[in-house]
Amino acid sequence: MTTDIQQRLTALTEQLHHLNYQYYQRDISEVSDQEFDRLLAELARLEDEYPQFAQANSPTQRVGGTVTKQFPTAEHRYPMLSLGNTYSEADLREFDERVRKGLEGAETAYVCELKFDGAAMSLTYEAGQLTQAVTRGDGARGDVVTSNVRTIRNVPLHLRPAGAPQPPEFEVRGEIFMPLPVFAELNQEREANGEAQLANPRNAAAGALKLQDSAQVAARKLRFYAYAFLMPGRAQFATHSASLEALSAWGLPVADTWRRCATLEQVLDFVHEWDQKRFELPVATDGIVIKVDDFRQQELLGYTAKSPRWAIAYKYPAEAGRTRLLAVQYQVGRTGAVTPVALLEPVPLAGTVVRRASLHNANQIAALDLRLGDLVFVEKGGEIIPKVTGVDLEARPEGSQPIVYPTECPACGTPLLRPEGEAHFRCPNDRGCPPQRKAKLEHFVSRKALDIDGLGAETVGRFFDLGLVTDAASLYELPAKAGQLAQLERMGEKSVQRLVAGLALSQQIPFDRVLFGLGIRYVGETVAEKLAAHYRTVEALAAATAPELAAVPEVGGVIAESAAAWFREPENQALVERLRAAGVQLALTGEAPQPQSDRLAGLTFVLSGVFEQHSRDGLHHLIEQHGGKITGSISKKLSFLVAGDKMGPAKREKATSLNVPIISETDLLAMLPAAGDAADATAATPGSAAAVASAAYEQGALF
Ligand SMILES: NC(=O)c1ccc[n+]([C@@H]2O[C@H](COP(=O)([O-])OP(=O)(O)OC[C@H]3O[C@@H](n4cnc5c(N)ncnc54)[C@H](O)[C@@H]3O)[C@@H](O)[C@H]2O)c1
Ligand SMILES: [Zn+2]
């Protein structure tokens, strides 16, 4: 008996630790939030009943997140906790009773706020200026992500001196989130690039905050809503609601959906009111947060190890429905990934009629033991794409057969491959498989690539089906077929003229967008920009080896391998030549950016670890701007290893054993001409900078 319980406790603890790791570290939800909360509640109940088995660092006692290794960390002045949560109104009534009891019957009021689903953020303002942004982390320490947060457009960098007086230093807490339309667009882009889809906007926001390059964070278009004010000592406001009003007046974005409720009945009204209305907002929400309004009462009620006793989150259960699985469709994407999609008998769910649902991949189908004709459960939670979560086994038709995942491409018959570590099967016939060819063409003409006026995805798809075009270069043969095109239904003379003009205009589209348009796996918009800027011509790019490509900022090993392999294929080389003949831009025009100085000429650098004053890419750029070179590996010939925070010990050892000087970011910056004295910069000899640094190194001043 006891061992059974002990085993269950251990199993639950392990499972929850694992789910927390996936969720906070890797931004993956393996189970629904509701399922997670059910498991956590079960563990709490067992620990309550058998306190002798409870562990000090049980998931019930700790905030789920941790700090990451990519950023410096900072301690929270006031711990950043989680919220108790519930899915039932009965629990809300209990919460209200506990509060009243705790306050010995004193009058109390609540503030109800929508629970935006993103990542919690703590902002510090000093003398009206944003000075620090820290993630929740493990509740006690978080990651310092100030430069990333500065890119969020509605986070004020300076406050307005309006409304209540501003304390010299205070903290604002709120949620960073990705607006739904931005999320949808990002996923479309990822699909086009052959990258895995992000499950929901929460994952997307949390993932974006962990990026090292702030410019990339800015491109994710995150937003912020403030929901709490904290200051040292006693707050200058008597109530939470008064502080929210002050935050608004100072220019901080407070969602205007909050409401003060004098009674629990009013709280429940608010909960009901937003049950459906929340789907009209351009932000993912997963519930309502209910807080005691009076700050002094909050203080009296206090905290548990994990959450305040004066607040609770009511979470809306994910909307689920039951419907019949009619068929499974296998879609082949641009990069050959095969995705199964469930075709369903239409069912209304969370404000829309659902006809299709994601089945993710073959594992999922097997795990669910899905069969055609099954009644299946479909859920639509924070995610936009509904998903099949289970099968109603009792209602299973007799004699049903399991779904057999195809072993051959449904479009071209090529045996499917499943690269190790990947969830998706893939059709390797990338040049012959019709849906892949067609999707590549659609990608080439798309808005962010060649943006060919008069040639949308649908038209180009139709041309492909009719055999009028076969690949990107063949598009430029269309003008010669103008007569034939004009005969097509819904085309006509005018549309053909527009198309011909559109093709001519596309010859002006810069090289980076052409490169993106080629649809090389993993070469998205940003990577294409970086590669084009670095190599300037397609010849130089095609001649680069994978390790060389990998040394370009933001181009990792996987991307580099993929790009190098692409340019090695004779067919792709031929395509490039045909595009050149068609007059498409295969080199950047205009002057290459001039180096700012040659201070670092002749010197080579390896950058390692996390840096404080610049991002790694920023430093890379700076070094090149001053004539230095970046390499990937430490060798005897290397001039300097620039060590940031958290550099691995192996690198340090290797550099030391090869007598390569190790310098810090500050030392590196000291080697550069100070801003403004560019004139004298070119006069300085590169040797002098090196001498300064190595002298410092010898004095032991650097490490
Ligand atoms: N599916 C999984 O595998 C998995 C794993 C771990 C956690 N989870 C989910 O995450 C939850 C735990 O996460 P959590 O600790 O971040 O708690 P939480 O998300 O339930 O609540 C706390 C958070 O709510 C946010 N919030 C939004 N609006 C707010 C407002 N107006 N006022 C205050 N806070 C507001 C803040 O970011 C705060 O940190 C679990 O209950 C579970 O649902 C799921
Ligand atoms: Zn195929």
Shape: globular
Structural class: alpha+beta
* Helix segment tally: 26
CATH superfamily of the largest domain: DNA ligase/mRNA capping enzyme
**Second rung of CATH, namely the architecture of the largest domain:** 2-Layer Sandwich
Helix content: 25-40%
Count of individual beta strands: 21
Cofactors and ligands: nicotinamide-adenine-dinucleotide, zinc ion
Terminal CA distance: 57 Å
The structural domain count equals 5
Biggest sheet overview: 6 strands, antiparallel
Would you give the CATH topology of the largest domain?
A: D-amino Acid Aminotransferase, Chain A, domain 1
Q: Strand-residue fraction?
A: 15-25%
Mean pLDDT: 88
CATH class of the largest domain: Alpha Beta
Task: Give a topology summary.
Blueprint: H1 2-25, H2 33-49, E1 73-75, E2 85-86, H3 89-102, E3 110-116, E4 119-126, E5 129-135, E6 141-143, H4 146-150, E7 169-177, H5 180-192, H6 201-209, H7 214-219, E8 223-230, H8 240-249, E9 259-261, H9 264-277, E10 285-292, H10 295-301, E11 311-315, E12 319-332, E13 337-349, E14 352-358, H11 362-368, E15 375-380, E16 387-391, E17 425-426, H12 434-445, H13 457-465, H14 482-486, H15 492-506, H16 511-517, H17 525-535, H18 538-543, H19 546-550, H20 557-568, H21 570-581, E18 604-608, H22 616-625, E19 629-630, E20 640-643, H23 649-657, E21 662-663, H24 665-671, H25 678-681, H26 686-698
Helix pairs in contact: 1-2, 12-13, 16-17, 24-26
Bound molecules: nicotinamide-adenine-dinucleotide (NAD) and zinc ion (ZN).
